[in-house]
Specification:
Layout lengths: L11 H5 L1 E5 L2 E4 L7 H14 L16 E6 L2 E5 L2 E5 L14 H13 L9 E7 L5 E4 L11 E7 L2 E5 L9 E5 L4 E4 L8 E3 L14 E7 L3
Antiparallel strand pairs: 1-2, 2-11, 3-6, 4-5, 6-13, 7-12, 8-11, 8-13, 9-10, 9-12
The structure holds N-(carboxycarbonyl)-S-(naphthalen-2-ylmethyl)-L-cysteine (MD3) and fe (iii) ion.
Pfam family, one: 2OG-FeII_Oxy_2
InterPro entries: Alkb, AlkB-like, AlkB-like_sf, Oxoglu/Fe-dep_dioxygenase_dom
GO molecular function: broad specificity oxidative DNA demethylase activity; ferrous iron binding; oxidative RNA demethylase activity
Amino acid sequence: MGPTLDLFGDDDTAQSGREMLGEQSVVLRGYALPDAAALLAGVDAVTQQAPFRNMVTPGGYTMSVALTNCGRYGWTTDAHGYRYSRNDPLSGQPWPDMPAAFDDLARRAAAEAGFPGFAPDACLVNRYEPGSRLSLHQDKDERDYGWPIVSVSLGMPAVFLFGGHERADKSQRVPLLHGDVVVWGGVDRLRFHGVMPLKDHPHPLLGSRRINFTIRRAG
Ligand code: MD3
Ligand code: FE
């Protein structure tokens, strides 16, 4: 039932724009829309200091998703493995500061999803172009899995794959649109997930790109 048909206010999914994906993962539809301009300005500020780049995995594959980071820790991959580092390997400099708009949104969204006291120290910014994809993986490089991850999607839509605790478990397909925020924590924190190859449906603000950033506590 869509919001305009919810005449009696008893459809809390449509009412709040909140969709449970798992027991402790929730999509907040359009939650970032009021802050979209500030968030995009933040992405620009970060990428001026630390440009998007296509990193290589330990298996020797160049990622189709380009990435950069901001905050105290940034996620990197190279021939030697995956890790969080204090400095950008391209420049040798610390990663750019986390924009206040990222930090503020992440704290509010985490609290909204039942994770009060979230104090992020890392943000991985991904850039997708048509054909870019992210194969099924787990996010396991953070120190404490008790903290959630907050994800913000901007630009072109994507089909997100939300799997189970084993790689072979069946995945749910979840569309993620401009302005959607997802919070993943608790029992869902280590579930396999990925993104299907992006189709070219140009977005009015971002053209043929999708930006996803995930705000985390890594250290
Ligand atoms: C579910 N990014 O950067 S965000 C990643 O759209 C990543 O760029 C995807 O997976 C993207 O690692 C998906 C949603 C997401 C992020 C972390 C999760 C879902 C998650 C951690 C655990 C479970
Ligand atoms: Fe991930």
